[in-house]
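stuck on whats below:

***
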Amino acid sequence: MTPNDPITLAPVAPGTPAVVLLSGGLDSATVLALATKAGYAVNALTFRYGQRHGVEIARAAELASTWKVARHVVADIDLRLFGGSALTADIDVPKDRAAETMAEGIPVTYVPARNTIFLSFALAWAETLGANDILIGVNALDYSGYPDCRPEFIAAFERMANLATRAGVEGTAHTRILTPLIALTKAGIIRTGRALGVDYSMTVSCYDPAPDGTACERCDACHLRAKGFAEA
């Protein structure tokens, strides 16, 4: 199997609870489909964090409805209070960058500690649900250089999660942070979703969409999405 090939998740007992981070983007929609097909009762968690691409919240709701999740929660946390990112502050979103440039350094669209914050919320909800598995659509191949999308970060957060929860301390359960897309190319992710019946027209990837949700087709996320579909 190569990073371009479609994948599946190992099946679980039907109705096993899990928390899936659902942004409304291409990657999280694919994880939602993978988790549903594997048999999980999906509890989808979306964040309204002050992002300029707020249209993704509506897309997440549509996806949650289409895939008949057990519950969909939208958590409000305003990261504009801190700024520091083109997604949460008055900073221009980079446009028309070459692939080589996108591969260099950490871009200004990185939101400081975003996945740490998101996973912490997911962990709190998972503990109340009695869910051992949290699924997130991070990717370490076709991505924009974000430090909180790397396998090292995920492994460290999972270790922390099992030190920070009652079930972990008492040894009654082990929390897993599942990242099924982490070693796939964007083309492999799209092939996976297509095999599962994901309608990618329901998703949004653009960092700087028009008010009606139309993609700019010029930001890094748009370029990576287009590249993935071309290769798939």
Observations:
- Helices lie at 26-38, 55-66, 99-102, 114-129, 151-164, 166-170, 186-196, 220-231.
- The chain has one domain: 16-231.
- The two ends are 15 Å apart (CA to CA).
- The longest strand covers residues 40-48.
